[in-house]
Amino acid sequence: MSLKKILYGTAYYYEYLPYDRLEQDIAMMVKAHINVVRIGESTWSTYEKQDGVFDFSTLDKVLDAMHAAGIQVIVGTPTYAIPTWLAKKYPEIMVQIDGKRQPYGARQIFDITAPAYLRYAERIIRKMIRHVAQHPAVIGYQVDNETKYYGTSSDNVQRGFVQFMKDQFDGDLDALNHEFGLDYWSNRINAWEDFPSMDGTINGSLKAEFDRYRRGLVTQFLQWQVDLVSQYKQPNQFVTHNFDFEWRGYSYGIQPDVDHFAASEPLDYAGGDVYHPSRKHLTGAEISFAGDLLRTLKHDNYLIMETQAQAFKQQVPYPGQLRQLAFSHIASGANMVEYWHWHSIHNSAETYWKGILSHDFQPNPIYNEVVQTGGQLAQLSDHLVNLKAKADVAFLVSNQSLSALQNFPFSDQRNYNDVFRALYDEFYKLNIRTDITDEHHIRLDDYQLIVVPALYSVSDTFLEALNAYVKRGGHVIYTFKSGFTDEHVKVRTVQQPGIISEACGVHYELFVDPDGCQLVPQDATIDGHSDLHLQDWMELLVPDTAQVIAKYDDPNWHDYAAITKNQFGAGSTIYLGCFPSADVLRQVIQAYAQELNLLPFAATFPVIIKQGRNQLGKTVTFYFNYSSEAQTAQLVAPGQELITDTTVTAPVRLDPWGVAIVESSPKE
Amino acid sequence: MSLKKILYGTAYYYEYLPYDRLEQDIAMMVKAHINVVRIGESTWSTYEKQDGVFDFSTLDKVLDAMHAAGIQVIVGTPTYAIPTWLAKKYPEIMVQIDGKRQPYGARQIFDITAPAYLRYAERIIRKMIRHVAQHPAVIGYQVDNETKYYGTSSDNVQRGFVQFMKDQFDGDLDALNHEFGLDYWSNRINAWEDFPSMDGTINGSLKAEFDRYRRGLVTQFLQWQVDLVSQYKQPNQFVTHNFDFEWRGYSYGIQPDVDHFAASEPLDYAGGDVYHPSRKHLTGAEISFAGDLLRTLKHDNYLIMETQAQAFKQQVPYPGQLRQLAFSHIASGANMVEYWHWHSIHNSAETYWKGILSHDFQPNPIYNEVVQTGGQLAQLSDHLVNLKAKADVAFLVSNQSLSALQNFPFSDQRNYNDVFRALYDEFYKLNIRTDITDEHHIRLDDYQLIVVPALYSVSDTFLEALNAYVKRGGHVIYTFKSGFTDEHVKVRTVQQPGIISEACGVHYELFVDPDGCQLVPQDATIDGHSDLHLQDWMELLVPDTAQVIAKYDDPNWHDYAAITKNQFGAGSTIYLGCFPSADVLRQVIQAYAQELNLLPFAATFPVIIKQGRNQLGKTVTFYFNYSSEAQTAQLVAPGQELITDTTVTAPVRLDPWGVAIVESSPKE
Amino acid sequence: MSLKKILYGTAYYYEYLPYDRLEQDIAMMVKAHINVVRIGESTWSTYEKQDGVFDFSTLDKVLDAMHAAGIQVIVGTPTYAIPTWLAKKYPEIMVQIDGKRQPYGARQIFDITAPAYLRYAERIIRKMIRHVAQHPAVIGYQVDNETKYYGTSSDNVQRGFVQFMKDQFDGDLDALNHEFGLDYWSNRINAWEDFPSMDGTINGSLKAEFDRYRRGLVTQFLQWQVDLVSQYKQPNQFVTHNFDFEWRGYSYGIQPDVDHFAASEPLDYAGGDVYHPSRKHLTGAEISFAGDLLRTLKHDNYLIMETQAQAFKQQVPYPGQLRQLAFSHIASGANMVEYWHWHSIHNSAETYWKGILSHDFQPNPIYNEVVQTGGQLAQLSDHLVNLKAKADVAFLVSNQSLSALQNFPFSDQRNYNDVFRALYDEFYKLNIRTDITDEHHIRLDDYQLIVVPALYSVSDTFLEALNAYVKRGGHVIYTFKSGFTDEHVKVRTVQQPGIISEACGVHYELFVDPDGCQLVPQDATIDGHSDLHLQDWMELLVPDTAQVIAKYDDPNWHDYAAITKNQFGAGSTIYLGCFPSADVLRQVIQAYAQELNLLPFAATFPVIIKQGRNQLGKTVTFYFNYSSEAQTAQLVAPGQELITDTTVTAPVRLDPWGVAIVESSPKE
C-alpha cells in the first residue's frame, strides 16, 4: 500500500482540552504543515456516557473542522480504556493477576478475552466506525492501541490455555507431561481437570508456553477488531495498529507480550510508536531498530503513530534534534511521523509527558521546530514518500526465546533484548541496514547474513533450515544460548549448541559465570587493547572444525574457545560463546561484514547514513550527525541536496544534530 | 494559654513495667526535677479488658503517686491502639489498603471513620476522662496520638469521599469531569454511582483531592475527641495533641497525612514530637523547624510531647547533647520538654527505642544528664517559661502541594519536603527566625519576607494575594514548580509560573532534567567557585522584567535564566527555577536577607543563636554550639549568663555541644 | 551406627529422564565407582497418578537395575512435593502466608499440619515403603526432604499455637501478658478466644515464640514420618533426613526454620546438604561448619545427602576442586558423599542447577573427575570410613536467638549467622576442630572452650550453668547481645549482659551504632595496624573485674571497653562487646587458643588440616590446599600418603586445590 504524500501529524485530544480551542489549534497545525491527526482512541466514556447512549458530536466536530482545514484523520477504536460504568457493571472484566483482580483506573487493565468486555467493545466499534466511515476526512483506522495481554491470568484465560494445550497435544497427557518434564517436583498432570493455574507454576517451559498462548490472544483480538472495522471501512481507507516495544522508559527492544510478526498480518499498514533517549543520549538507534522491524513486518513502508515531541523532562530535545528525528524516521522507511501529542495535558497520568505545545498552548521552541520540519517535509514529500530499500542482513528475533529467557535468565541484570541490542547497535553504527523478522516469516535466501541473538527456544526444523542456508552459501552470527532448547523450551539432549553445532563447528559441555574472566584474542580480529571483559555468561567452547577468534584468560579454562568462526559448505558462521563488550562486538562484526562485502559506507556513527530508492527512481542518501560536534561525511554519490536545493560534489558538512539529503541518479 | 513553669517530663508506662517499681521510678524522677508525666495513651486493653468492663486502678495508682510527689500528669485518650477483643468482634474496623484488610497487631491500623471503632472509642474516652478529670494531678489531656488516616481506602471512606465531591461540585458531574480532566483515558464519571474506588486511580489530581479529604478526616476526628474531652475537663486543664512530622527515621518535614494548621484549631496547646539525628549528625535543624511550625500553629508557646532520650543505637547522644537539646526546644518557644520515654521496654516493637533508663532501670549517663538538665531548668524556669519571639520571615508550606507532588513528582529521589528543608536549613544556619504556616492561616503583612517552596497547588486567589503583597512592599522567594496548578491540581493554562509571573517578571515554556547542567552566575550574588551543580529540575526561564542571577551552562540553553530577581511595585521576588546546591542557596538567601536587613546576628552555624522576650520583660539570648569543637560567639548583648549566673560582656566561649543563655535588658 | 564402606553416590531421577537410558546411566555410574543412589523423594505424582491408584513400576525397575549393578539405594518418601490432583481436591492444604493461600506449583508449599495432606502423605509412605522394604538394594530411607514449616500461618497452625501457649502457661493469661509484655500498644489478650493471628503481630517476642512453635511442627512431622517408615524398614536399613542450612545462594549458617538438634533425634543418621561458593571463592568453610554441626547432632559420622557437582554457572568447579571437596567431607566425618544430581534436568525450575552430567549425558570434565575421585575413595574406603575425631572446642548455637534477632535485629545487613560465621571461620582457618550444638544438648565439660555467638535468648538456668562451667575451669568466648533476653525474648531487668556479667566481669548500660568508630587496642592481643573498624554494634562496656583488650576511639566514649577478658574461678571468658573485623577476631581467637593450648597445627588457611582416627586404629591427617597457588605444609606426623601410596617424612607439597592424606600410628 502506498501513500500519496508524507504524513506529518499528531495525536489530538479535543476531549481533553481545558477549554474549546479547536479553531486555534487547527490554525497552529496548518501553520506547521500538519496534514494528519489521530483521534478517538481513548475516549470511550465520552462517546458512550452510559450503557447504550452514544454521542459522537465531539468526534463529528473535530472531523468536520479538520476536513475544512485539509487535515486528514486516523480514527482509533476507543477500546483500550474502558468507561467507569462498564467496570462497575461487570467487575469481572478487570484483569486478574496472581488471583487478584486489579482495580479500575488505568487503561489496559481488563481481560481482552472477557465476554462482557468484548460485547461492549464490539458495540462501540460498530457504532463509531459506521458513524465516521463515510466522512471524507477519514483516511484510516487504528484498531485499539498498544494492545497486550496485560499479565492476565484470569480463570477464562486459564481455561483457554488448558484447551489450547489439549488441542496441541491431541489430548495426550503423557506426551504433555513428557514434553514439559512435569514429573519434576510431582507436577505431573494426570487428568485435564487437574491442570493447575499458571499463577504458581515453577515450570519455566510451561510458563513460556502460557506466554505464547497469551500473545496469541493479542493476535486474535487485533484480528477480531480488523474484521469488525473492515465491515465499514471504505476502499481508500487503511487499517493499522500502534505497536510498541519493550519499555525501559523508552522503546528498548522486542515487545515481550505481543507477536508483532503474526499480529500485523491483518493490517494494511504496520504502525508503531517509538520513544527514545534525547539530548546528549540520543543515538537514533531506537528509531532505526523499530523502523527496521516495522518495515520488515509487511516489507513495506510503515507509519510512526507516536513519537516524542517534548515528552518527559529528560527528553526535551536540543535545538535541531526534533527535525533530525523526523527525517530519521523517513530514512528508515516511515511514511508518517505523528507526534504524541499536540497539547500537554492538564490532569492525570501523563501531565508531564508533554506534547508539541506546553500547557499554555503558546508557540514554543519545540512547536517552532515542528513548523520548520513540517515545511521541509511538505516541500520534499514527493522525494521522500514510499522510499524503498533492500537489506542484505537480517536479524532473526524470537518472542519465544525472549519469554523463555525470562524464565531461564542468563543474567540477573540483562535479558534477551540486551543481547539483541548489543548486536543491533553495532550494525547500526556501522551503517549496515538490516531487516528484523522471526523464524516464521524470514525468507532466508533474501539475505547474505543472518544475525541470531540468543535463539534459545526454536524447533529442530528451523535450526536445520539455518544449517542448510549456511551450507548453500549463507552466513550466520549466533550468540551464546542459541539452539539450547526446542520450541517447548525443553533442553536438547544432544551436545550443545545442539543442531547448529554442525554449522558452527563447535560444541560445549560446561558454561560458567565470567566472574572477572576476560577474552584472549587469538587472531587479528580483535585488538588486544580492546575492552576484553565479559558479562553474564561464558560457554567453554570446544572447537571441532571451527577457527578460534578468542579464548578465555582463566588458567583453568584457557584451552576453551570463546568466539569461533567456521566455514560450512559454501557459507560460514560466527559463534559468540560469551557476552563481550561493545568494543569487541564491533570489531568482530566489522571484520565479518568487511569479509562479506557488507559495509556500504566508510562513515560510522556518529555519522549515520541511510539510503533508499524513491518513487522518482532516484537514490536518496540521508546523512545524519548524531553528535554535538560538527562532522564531515565523505560523499556517497554526488547529487542534489534536497533541503537546501544545492548541488553537492564535495564531502558533506553536517552541523551538530544536522541532516543532509542528497538525491542522485542510481548507479546500477 | 501560658504556663506557670517550664514542664520537664517523660512519657511513663506503668502498665509496661516488668515489675512494680512505681515508688523507685518516682524517686528517680523527683531527683531529676521531672515535674510532668504523660500517661495512658496506649493502654486501652488494660483499662477495658473486656467489652464494657472498665478498670482504672493502675491509672488511679499512678495519678495518686505522682500527685504525692508533686509531679503533674497529662492523660492521653487511649484510642490509637485498640484491644484484641475489639478487633476480633469487629474485624471490619481494621484499615483497608488496596482492598486488603490489615491484620491486627500494630497501633494505628484501624479506620478512624469506622462506626464500631468510634462507638467504642467514645465510650472509653468518656469513662476515662470522667474518671480522672477531678484528680488534682491532672493538668491536661492529649487526645489520641500521632493521628493520621493510616492509608485507609475502606468502603466507607470511599463513600464519604464521593459525598464530599458531590457537595463540593453541587452534584455537577460535568464540572467535576472538567476540573479533574476525567475524559482522559476514559475515566469520565457519568453517574455518581459509577465513581470508582480511589485504589486504582491514575488521576493524580483526584488522588491529591482524596488525600485532602482524608486529612480532613483527621481534623474531624481530633475535633470530635476534643469535644468529648471538653465535656469533662476542668477549667485549669488544657487539651493538646501530639503531632508528628514526615518520618525518615526522624522528623524530616511537613506531615503529609495531617493538616496541622486546621487540626490544631480546637486545641489549647499545640504539641508535637521531634526526633532527630544525633552525635556528629546533630544540627538542631529539626528542633528548629518543628518548633517554628508548632509555635506558629497557635502563635503561642507549644509543648514537646516527645523527644528522644537514648532512642535507637544511632541516636544515643554524646555527653552534653541532651542538655543542649532541651534548651534548644525552649529557645524555639517550647514550654514543655517531655522525653519518650522513661524506661526502655522489655518486649515488643520498641524495645530498642530506648528511654531515659536502660532496661536495668539503673542510673546511667543519660539519666545523669537529665538530672543535671532538670536541675537547671527548674532553677531558670521563671526566666524561660512563656518566652516570646517575633519572626520577620515566614515559610508558606502546603499539604496540598506536598500531596500533589507525590503524585506528580519532580524527582525520583526527593519530594516537597526536600525543597522545604533545603531552604529552611539555610535560614536556620543563618540564625534567621521563621514562622511556618499555610495559605489559609498566614497573615501576610506580619512578615517582611515570605519563603514559598514548591507551591505547586494553590488557588488563583492566594497567588493574587501574594502578588498584591509584593506590590505593596513585601518580598517573596519562590522555588520552581510554584504556581503550576490550581487548588485541584489542574495545570494552569496561562504561561508558567502562572499568576506569579507578574510579580516574578519571568515565564517559561520548557523544563528539563539537569542531567549534569550547572549554574553560570551572572552577578556577584553567587561565587563562581561554589558548588554549581543542579538536581532534579530546571525550568528554562525567560526573564521579562527580572534581573538574572544565574543561567545554565548547557550551550543549547545558555540564553535561559535559572535564578532571577524582580522588583515589583514596592517589593521584590526571587524566583529559583531550579534546585541548586545548599552552597548556592545559602548565598542567594544571605544576600537577599542582607539587602532586606533580616540578618540579626553575625554568627552562623555551628553557632546557633535564638532570642526571645521572657515574662520578666527581659531579652534572653541563647547561644548554642552545634559542633564537637569549642566555638567563640560574638556577644549580642551584655547581660547575665543564667546557667552559671555570671555577668558576660565579652565574646561567649562555647564548649563542644555547649549552651549559654544571656538575659539582658531589651534595647527598644 | 557405622557403615562398611564410604558411600559415594548421587541423587538419581529416572522419572525425569527425557528418554530411557537407565542402562547407560548405570554403566557410567559403575565406571565412576558410584555405589549408592538416592531416589524417589519428589515423584509422588508419578507413583500415584490419581487418588488411590498406585504404580511403583519405575521404582522397581530402578531398584532392580541398581541392585544388579551392585549399587545400593536410599529411598526417599515422596512427600515434599504434592500431586496436582491433591492440590485440586483439597485447596485448603496449600500454605497460607499473610492470609493468602499460595498457588500450586513449587514443592514445599503446603501446610505440614493440614489433615488432608497428612492423610494422603501417610498412605503413600505406607504403600511405598512397604513396597520397597524387602528389596535387597535398599540400605536406608530419607524421610521427606529439607522439611521446613514453609512460612505457614494457616488457621490450624494459629489454633495449634494458641493451644501451645495455653498449655505452656497453664491457661494463665496474666502470666502470658506479663511475660510477653502485651500491655504494650494495647495488645493484651484478655480471653483465649481473642488471641490475634500472628500475621500482624508487632510483638517480636511472641513472633519468636511462634517461630519456635513452628520449628516444633517440623520436629513432630519428621518424628511422625520416622515412626511410619520404622513400621516397615528392615533391621539393616537406616532412616535419615536431608537437613539444609540458611540459604544465601549456598549453605551459609544455622537453619532458621528447623531445630536440627531436636529434629535429628529419631534418625539413625544425621544427613544434610551442603552447597558452597566455588572457583576462587572456595574456602571449604561451609563443608566444615555443616560437617561439624551434622557430626555433633548424633556425635557420629554423618551423610552428605546432597552436594554440588556442576551446579549453577557461578559454581562450576575448577579442575581438582571436586575431588578436594569429596575428601573434605570425609575429613569432617562424612561417611557418604552424594551429589545433586546425576543428570542435568531438561525442564522446569532447576534446569540450570546442573548435575554430574550435562544435558547431553556425555562424559565431561566434571564426570571425569567424579570417575577419578570415585576410584580413589573405593581404594581408600577402609582407611576413611567411620573416621572419628574429638573436638575440644564447641560452638553453642541457638535457633531461638537466631529467630529473636530476626525480630530485634542488631544490623540492617547482617544477622545471627553472620556473627556465628565470623567466629566459626576464624577457628576453621586456624585449623581448630569444633563441635556445634545447642543449649539443650551440649555436654559442657566435654570442652575446654565454648564459643557463644550472640546468645540473645536463653534461660537463666543455662547462663548460670555457663557461669558454673567457667568457675570450675571452663573457658567461654561471648559476643555482644549474649544474655540480653530470657527464653521468651523478654529483656532481662538486671544489668546487661545479665547473668553472665558475673563470669565476664563487665556490664553496660548503653549500646550505640559504630558509625565510624574504631578499636583502640589496649594490650598486645591486637596489632595496632590491624583493620580496627567496627560494624553494626558496640556496647559501651564498663569493666568490673575484667581486663581490657580494646577500647573505642570516639573521644566521647573512650573510657568504655570494647573487648575484655576475665578470670573467673578456675576458668576465663572473653567478651566481645562489638562486631570487629575478621582480622581482629583472628588475633583474639588465636591468642586465646594459644593460651589455652588449643592450636593443634602450625599451618593456617589456605592450608587446612583435619585429623581423625580410623577404624584401623591409625591417625589419618588430611592436608588440603584451598588456593590456586601450590603450598607446602609442615608434616604433622610421618606416615603413608594414601592416595599416592608413598611414605612421607618431609613437608607435604600441595598442588593448587590439592589433597594429601597421611596415615600414621597414633602418638598416644
Automatic annotation (TrEMBL), chains A, B, C:
<feature type="domain" description="Beta-galactosidase C-terminal">
    <location>
        <begin position="617"/>
        <end position="663"/>
    </location>
</feature>
<keyword id="KW-0862">Zinc</keyword>
<dbReference type="InterPro" id="IPR013780">
    <property type="entry name" value="Glyco_hydro_b"/>
</dbReference>
<dbReference type="InterPro" id="IPR003476">
    <property type="entry name" value="Glyco_hydro_42"/>
</dbReference>
<dbReference type="Pfam" id="PF08533">
    <property type="entry name" value="Glyco_hydro_42C"/>
</dbReference>
<feature type="domain" description="Beta-galactosidase trimerisation">
    <location>
        <begin position="391"/>
        <end position="598"/>
    </location>
</feature>
<dbReference type="Pfam" id="PF08532">
    <property type="entry name" value="Glyco_hydro_42M"/>
</dbReference>
<feature type="binding site">
    <location>
        <position position="107"/>
    </location>
    <ligand>
        <name>substrate</name>
    </ligand>
</feature>
<feature type="binding site">
    <location>
        <position position="145"/>
    </location>
    <ligand>
        <name>substrate</name>
    </ligand>
</feature>
<comment type="similarity">
    <text>Belongs to the glycosyl hydrolase 42 family.</text>
</comment>
<feature type="active site" description="Proton donor">
    <location>
        <position position="146"/>
    </location>
</feature>
<keyword id="KW-0326">Glycosidase</keyword>
<dbReference type="InterPro" id="IPR029062">
    <property type="entry name" value="Class_I_gatase-like"/>
</dbReference>
<protein>
    <recommendedName>
        <fullName>Beta-galactosidase</fullName>
        <ecNumber>3.2.1.23</ecNumber>
    </recommendedName>
</protein>
<dbReference type="GO" id="GO:0046872">
    <property type="term" value="F:metal ion binding"/>
</dbReference>
<dbReference type="InterPro" id="IPR013739">
    <property type="entry name" value="Beta_galactosidase_C"/>
</dbReference>
<keyword id="KW-0378">Hydrolase</keyword>
<dbReference type="InterPro" id="IPR017853">
    <property type="entry name" value="GH"/>
</dbReference>
<dbReference type="Pfam" id="PF02449">
    <property type="entry name" value="Glyco_hydro_42"/>
</dbReference>
<dbReference type="GO" id="GO:0004565">
    <property type="term" value="F:beta-galactosidase activity"/>
</dbReference>
<feature type="domain" description="Glycoside hydrolase family 42 N-terminal">
    <location>
        <begin position="12"/>
        <end position="379"/>
    </location>
</feature>
<dbReference type="InterPro" id="IPR013738">
    <property type="entry name" value="Beta_galactosidase_Trimer"/>
</dbReference>
<keyword id="KW-0479">Metal-binding</keyword>
<dbReference type="GO" id="GO:0009341">
    <property type="term" value="C:beta-galactosidase complex"/>
</dbReference>
<feature type="active site" description="Nucleophile">
    <location>
        <position position="306"/>
    </location>
</feature>
<dbReference type="InterPro" id="IPR013529">
    <property type="entry name" value="Glyco_hydro_42_N"/>
</dbReference>
<dbReference type="GO" id="GO:0006012">
    <property type="term" value="P:galactose metabolic process"/>
</dbReference>
